[in-house]
């Protein structure tokens, strides 16, 4: 009896999970299906989830008629730069975890405090600073402000604090330089943090929208999402093109996420948010 | 040496901007001032006084309140519920659905706007078609002032379950199995285990999720920006969008900066209240 109750309970749980999950997926299915529809199928009533006459034209048009290749290149440059930022974060975390210097704790608290500040407060002054540095409408202006982040520094520091000091001392006795210790000893040990921060960094850079929109006036500097918003504004009725653009932004990130999702959950467990 | 680049960048782009924001919130800085700094004049508290007389700002505060009151409980409860369901088993089914629930969190906001804009479309959208199955009339999802707010909340709800669910899931995996085994020996049923072990032990995760969700909804911004631009009739205008519009569309930098400090102060107050309430709770 108790066993049957348990089976029934599990059945209900799974049913709830599946129904909820399918509802969550509706926009994705709708997006993928529509991205293969020819334009004349968008005004058909009732609307269909999948195209009757599938076509690749929408995707082709993104690259032929629109400048999506340039947008893709810019986005990838931002992604690469953000990985440099990831290393800067790791180095800062390392310094906070393993070195003593005057004002260390105060510095650390100030960095943590920057997490609390709403983006809207710093947005205007940051724009003014970038403007003063004559970096408006340059790639550097797009990339620099977001290069380092308090959360990543915090995560690296937390994890590196647990690494025994003896290990570092031993390496120093063997005559390894500080840079070598960092790259050959620390980086391999903190791989799990690199994994989770790496994927979060990638997602963030790939999706970056607002800041490039503010800083880039020149179409040559547009990112994919800025390009897509342009498409949404100018080709408001070209649903197929819009849907293909959206799918082109979303699908790669989902694929990457599926590969690395185990690390994200581990990462949250490591970071001690529980 | 290790710390210099990061600290330099953070100082330049996070700490100095706060000071600048505070300074320009007391000035009349606009596009003219941007071109030539000698045109900037100090105006004392008049930006702060004007902003509370601005009907659009007051409207945006009211809208933000609605977003918070409906959005926060919805997201916290749903993400906890999903995490509990996902934690129920460990087979492939549960693992794949973990990915599915997380997927909306990582999608690009512009792509989301494109897809949802089409879903909400008054003529060809899926939502109105689904309504027609039940004989319900078609709705103007984004054009009706009341409905537009709810439409944005639904979208943001869909997008924010994933991340919070992961935090709950990480917390659930940290609960020792022995607690449940002990309870089972005492004859506790599923519901009682949930009520007396799981939910209390999720206390910290719930606190963390509540506070981050609350701060997130107070700064509600991207969804109205890309979906409605604050319309119709400012019905979806949030405080953050108001600041953005004044700063980057109207180039009223000083006025926008004072708005951003009002927002900042509200966040600090709400966070402090949360911590105060948390302290009163019994620790397990």
Question: What attributes does this structure have?
Answer:
A: 274 residues; mainly alpha; 13 helices; 73% helix; B: 284 residues; MetI-like (chain A)
Binned strand content of chain B: under 5%
Number of discrete helical segments of chain B: 14
SS class of chain B: mainly alpha
- Segments of chain A where pLDDT lies below 50 for 5+ residues? none
Assembly category = heterodimer
Count of alpha and pi helical runs of chain A = 13
Largest interface: A-B, 91 and 90 residues
Could you explain how this protein is built, in words?
Chain A: This is Carbohydrate ABC transporter permease. Chain A: It is a multi-pass membrane protein. Chain A: The chain crosses the membrane at residues 12-32, 76-96, 108-130, 136-156, 193-215, 235-260. The complex is a heterodimer of chains A (274) and B (284). By secondary structure, chain A is mainly alpha-helical. Chain A is built from 13 helices and no strands. Chain A has helices at residues 2-35, 57-64, 68-98, 104-113, 119-132, 139-143, 150-161, 165-173, 178-189, 191-207, 210-215, 224-234, 239-270. In chain A, helix 10 runs antiparallel to helix 13 (239-270). The longest helix of chain A is centred in the first third of the chain and has 34 residues, at 2-35. The mean pLDDT of chain A is 86. With 284 residues, chain B is an all-alpha fold. Chain B has 14 helices and no strands. Chain B has helices spanning 4-24, 31-35, 46-51, 55-86, 92-102, 109-119, 126-133, 145-173, 177-185, 190-201, 203-218, 222-227, 239-249, 253-280. The longest helix of chain B has 32 residues, at 55-86. Chain B starts with a helix and ends with a helix. The model of chain B has no long low-confidence stretch (mean pLDDT 88).
């Amino acid at each position: 009896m108790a066993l049957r109750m348990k089976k029934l309970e599990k059945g209900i749980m799974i049913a709830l999970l599946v129904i909820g999950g399918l509802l969550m997926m509706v926009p994705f299915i709708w997006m993928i299906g529509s991205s293969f529809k020819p334009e004349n199928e968008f005004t058909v009533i009732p609307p269909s989830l999948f195209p009757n006459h599938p076509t690749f034209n929408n995707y082709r048009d993104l690259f032929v008629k629109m400048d999506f290749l340039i947008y893709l290149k810019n986005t990838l440059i931002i992604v690469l730069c953000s990985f440099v930022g990831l290393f800067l974060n790791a180095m800062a975390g390392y310094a906070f975890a393993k070195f003593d210097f005057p004002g260390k704790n105060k510095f650390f608290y100030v960095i943590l405090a920057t997490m609390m500040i709403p983006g809207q407060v710093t947005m205007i002054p940051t724009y003014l600073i970038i403007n003063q540095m004559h970096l408006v409408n340059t790639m550097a202006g797009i990339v620099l402000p977001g290069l380092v982040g308090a959360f990543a520094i915090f995560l690296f520091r937390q994890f590196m604090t647990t690494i025994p000091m003896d290990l570092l001392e031993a390496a120093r006795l063997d005559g390894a330089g500080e840079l070598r210790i960092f790259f050959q000893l620390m980086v391999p040990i903190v791989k799990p943090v690199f994994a989770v921060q790496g994927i979060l960094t990638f997602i963030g850079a790939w999706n970056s929208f607002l800041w490039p929109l503010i800083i880039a006036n020149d179409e040559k500097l547009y990112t994919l999402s800025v390009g897509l918003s342009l498409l949404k504004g100018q080709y408001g009725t070209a649903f197929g093109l819009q849907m293909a653009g959206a799918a082109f932004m979303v699908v790669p990130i989902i694929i990457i996420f599926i590969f690395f999702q185990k690390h994200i959950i581990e990462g949250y467990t490591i970071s001690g948010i529980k | 040496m290790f710390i210099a680049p990061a600290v330099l960048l953070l100082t330049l782009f996070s700490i100095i901007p706060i000071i600048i924001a505070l300074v320009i919130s007391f000035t009349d800085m606009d596009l003219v001032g941007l071109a030539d700094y000698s045109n900037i004049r100090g105006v004392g508290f008049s930006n702060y006084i004007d902003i509370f007389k601005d009907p659009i700002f007051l409207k945006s505060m009211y809208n933000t309140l609605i977003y918070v009151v409906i959005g926060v409980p919805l997201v916290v409860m749903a993400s906890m519920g999903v995490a509990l369901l996902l934690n129920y088993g460990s087979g492939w089914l549960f693992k794949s659905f973990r990915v599915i629930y997380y997927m909306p969190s990582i999608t690009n906001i512009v792509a989301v706007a494109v897809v949802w804009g089409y879903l909400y479309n008054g003529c060809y959208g899926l939502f109105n078609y689904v309504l027609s199955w039940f004989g319900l009339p078609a709705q103007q999802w984004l054009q009706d002032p009341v409905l537009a707010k709810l439409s944005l909340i639904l979208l943001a709800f869909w997008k924010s379950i994933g991340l919070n669910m992961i935090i709950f899931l990480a917390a659930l995996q940290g609960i020792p199995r022995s607690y449940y085994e002990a309870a089972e020996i005492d004859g506790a049923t599923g519901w009682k285990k949930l009520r007396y072990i799981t939910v209390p032990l999720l206390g910290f995760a719930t606190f963390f999720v509540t506070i981050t969700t609350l701060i997130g909804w107070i700064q509600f911004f991207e969804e109205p920006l890309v979906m409605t631009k604050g319309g119709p009739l400012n019905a979806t205008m949030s405080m953050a969008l108001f600041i953005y519009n004044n700063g980057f569309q109207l180039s009223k930098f000083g006025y926008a900066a004072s708005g951003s400090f009002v927002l900042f102060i509200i966040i600090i107050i709400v966070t402090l209240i949360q911590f105060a309430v948390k302290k009163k709770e019994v620790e397990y």
